[in-house]
Amino acid sequence: MTIASQRYLALDVLRGLTVALMIVVNTPGDWGSVYAPFLHAEWHGFTLTDLVFPSFLFVVGNALAFALGKYEHLGHGAVLAKLCKRSALIFLLGFLLYWFPFFKIDDAGQFAWSPLSHTRIPGVLQRIAVCYLAAALVLHCWKTRGALVFSACALLGYWAILATWGDYSLHGNAPAKLDLILLGDSHLYHGEGIAFDPEGILGTLPSIVNVIAGYLAGSFLRRTAPAQLRAALYRLVVAGVICVAVALCWNEVFPINKKLWTSSYVMLGIGLDLLLLALLMFVIDVRKITGWTYFFEVFGKNTLFIYLVSEVLVIIAFTVRTGGGNLYQWLYQHWFTGWAPARVGSLLFAVSFMLLCWLIAYFMDKRKIYIKV
Questions:
Q1: What Å distances lie between residue 34 and 22, 313, 350, 353, CA to CA?
Q2: Name one Pfam family in it (predicted).
Q3: Is the bond preceding residue 101 a cis peptide, omega within 30 degrees?
Q4: Is 111 helix (H, G, I), strand (E, B) or coil?
Q5: Residue pLDDT tens, the chain, 373 long
Q6: For residue 224, which phi and psi values (nearest 5 degrees)?
Q7: 205 vs 262: CA distance, rounded Å
Q8: 210, 225, 353, 370: which is closest to 297 by C-alpha?
Q9: What is the DSSP-derived secondary structure letter of residue 286?
Q10: Which end of the chain has less neighbouring CB within 10 Å, N or C?
Q11: Which H or E element spans position 187?
Q12: From CA 136, how far away is CA 308, in angstroms rounded?
């Protein structure tokens, strides 16, 4: 294997670890009984859960470092077509996921079609799709130096926009105002009690930087020979520490906030991802401690598909009626409550669901079924 094509196992493990944690934090048995690290910060601040989505974007960038080079020989037009097609498919899957199962059942048991006019447009996969496309185009057209300039302008520009046209509160932030103008109240997330979407339009700008950072880290490691890996990890650690330090300093004037996806939050996420990647590479690729890695490799081989499966299963469980509630609540109440403390039972439910998704991924891996978009 040449230096130019070097691929390290830790990159695949990081992707699988991110998916596993994302499933766990998305599916507690009871949202009222969750350990603090498995909840998003209420507004300003940072928890373990707040690292999941930026890490997902970071590993998208890692994968892009190995894929984009393969596209270059196709020609500019073919590269654009390939990138746009993949982005559009991911965006469409995300939108259909929020529309699924395309109908609702009222308390009387009557079916009614879910109108497109009240379907959420922004979302997790939608943001991934747009960030993937934007980062790939920036890197394809402007290369590394242009991507670094773009990243600096995006983070500083986003700070200027939020400081100039609003404040950093839930009710006064610029991203919410723009989403209401362009998308309307009925197409936005209402989980905060008002029409505010944490995956809205404006917040996508700094999110692109997470993908670019993942690409740069993946590209750097791709060019690193095994004999030079220790020195490369030292550079990753230094870069990670610098990013975290910048984030903490920036936090004093531009608070770390996942829901606004502030620039300080971007820097913190990138810094922690670099440190986590360096740690995984030291354990896996330097010390060769790999007996535990297959569990996460399985998730990493069908990342997007398993994420979709986990979301679809949850939606179905909430849709199926059982007595006075739904199947999701019934499973939690009958299998995970009464014999364990509330938070423990809630976490065990989430871990059990994650393991169910893992079994699906394991079944697919054993049969060499890999679904790519």
A1: 15, 21, 10, 15
A2: HGSNAT_cat
A3: yes
A4: strand
A5: 344 446 789 999 999 999 999 999 999 999 889 999 999 999 999 999 999 999 999 999 999 998 887 877 778 888 899 999 999 999 999 999 998 888 776 666 677 788 888 899 999 999 999 999 999 999 999 999 999 999 999 999 999 999 999 999 999 999 999 999 999 999 999 989 999 999 999 999 999 999 999 999 999 998 888 889 999 999 999 999 999 999 999 999 999 999 999 999 999 999 999 999 999 999 999 999 999 999 999 998 999 999 999 999 999 999 888 877 889 999 999 899 888 899 999 999 999 999 999 999 999 999 999 988 7
A6: -95, 120
A7: 10
A8: 370
A9: I
A10: N
A11: none
A12: 23
d(Cα 6, Cα 269) in Å, to the nearest integer? 25
Alpha carbon distance 113, 102 (integer Å): 6
Nearest residue to 273 (alpha-carbon basis) of 32, 21, 6 = 21
Contact of 147 with 216, CB cutoff 8 Å: yes
Phi-psi sector, 341: left (phi>0), alpha (psi -120 to 50), beta:
beta
Phi, psi for residue 31 in degrees, rounded to 5: -65, -20
Using the Cα atoms of residue 82, residue 85, residue 91 and residue 97 in order, give the sign of their dihedral. negative
Distance CA 205, CA 150 (A): 10
- Cβ count within 10 A of residue 198: 22
Closest CA to 221 of 317, 286, 128, 313: 286
Of the candidates 74, 58, 45, the residue with the CA atom closest to the CA atom of residue 140: 74
Give the closest residue to 182 by CA, choosing from 166, 163, 167, 197: 197
